[in-house]
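Problem statement: downstream parser choked on a complex file, so we are re-checking the raw output for the magnesium ion run. The parser issue turned out to be on our end (a line-ending mismatch), but while we're here, posting the original submission so the record is complete.
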Amino acid sequence: MCFVNKIIFCEDLMRIFLQSSGKRRFLTDIHKHSLQHIIYFYHICYMDQGENIKSLIHGVNHGDRRALAKAITLIESNRPEDQEIKSMLMKAARSLGKAAVKIGITGSPGVGKSTFLNGFVRMFGESSSRIAILTIDPSSTLTGGSILGDKLRMTDIADMEQVFIRPSPSKGTLGGINLTTWETVLLCEAAGYDYIFIETVGVGQSEIEIQYLVNEVWYLTMARAGDEVQGIKRGILEIVDRVIVTKEDLNPREAQNTAAFLRQSLKIIQTRPKKASFYTLTPLQQDTMKTLFEDLQTVQPHPLEKDQLTFWFSRGWRETILRKIQSHPRIQVLYERMLSDVHGNASDYWSAMDHLVNEIDDLWKE
Ligand SMILES: Nc1nc2c(ncn2[C@@H]2O[C@H](COP(=O)(O)OP(=O)(O)O)[C@@H](O)[C@H]2O)c(=O)[nH]1
Ligand SMILES: [Mg+2]
């Protein structure tokens, strides 16, 4: 049976199951999932959830990459009905594994982040270290999917036994770091990965927010002329732990100049005691990355700091409240009505907002 037929067969099977048990909730979304995911959701839906989570988490904890992939797929679900099982999964994962060395790789699109990871991670070679690479899927509205090549650039390491590569959806957030990315990191730690590299899209908020997810931020930049160096955003320079000037092969002298200029700038910008380290290298040539690789060995794994956890806690809280309010049927109906009134000039924006807030107040009192 070909793949499409299998999907159709599975869909029919699911339809019968769903209709017979009155659970229709997956019907509309069914076509979005691959065969594997359809079967997986069937399991989640119809088998004892506690048992399911137990076996899934057992797989994750014992290095089963498919179980890890499935667990990540589950936490990526936005469906309200999946939130409970998602929370069961994360509670179970929390007590497992150990802290990994977490590195954020940031820098403008095209600077060479994916190429760098491909070359750098290959240097782990036969070592026993296990490495997870999370790339924020740039298929967001922000980049229009123009830089979809992350995984393509990592062909040298994609088949390495100890490497797990996973694109993470940006979910429309500017720059793409979101709660799911944090939860994915926790799952990778539960799976016992020693190193977790997170490649950001390199634009928008993600450049700054990556600091809440990792032990170190590595900023990749290219050799630039003097004026262009001045254009580098101050925000990123304040938080960066290592500055890496890539594509040294194209113009070694300019690469050195860029590094020197940035070193001077950082002396003024960075107020903390530990200043950033500097490297100029060519991701396509392994020998240029040796020093950085040796320096990585001195980085100790540790869990996120209090201020990092505060960031995720407050973001999670905001999202939870929002979901709760937005999903209330009365709010949903009123929202649609208010929006249409504003479109049709029957109401102004401020009065519409007043109505919505009053409705929330009423719900609050009930
Ligand atoms: N000459 C040269 N080209 C490079 C180097 N590193 C990356 N590139 C090229 O730069 C382009 C963008 O690289 P990519 O890794 O996709 O950048 P990303 O968007 O930051 O992930 C690709 O065409 C790479 O082949 C390098 O060290 N030297
Ligand atoms: Mg990339």
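For whoever reads this later: Residues 113-114, 150, 199 surround magnesium ion (ligand 2) (CB under 6 Å).
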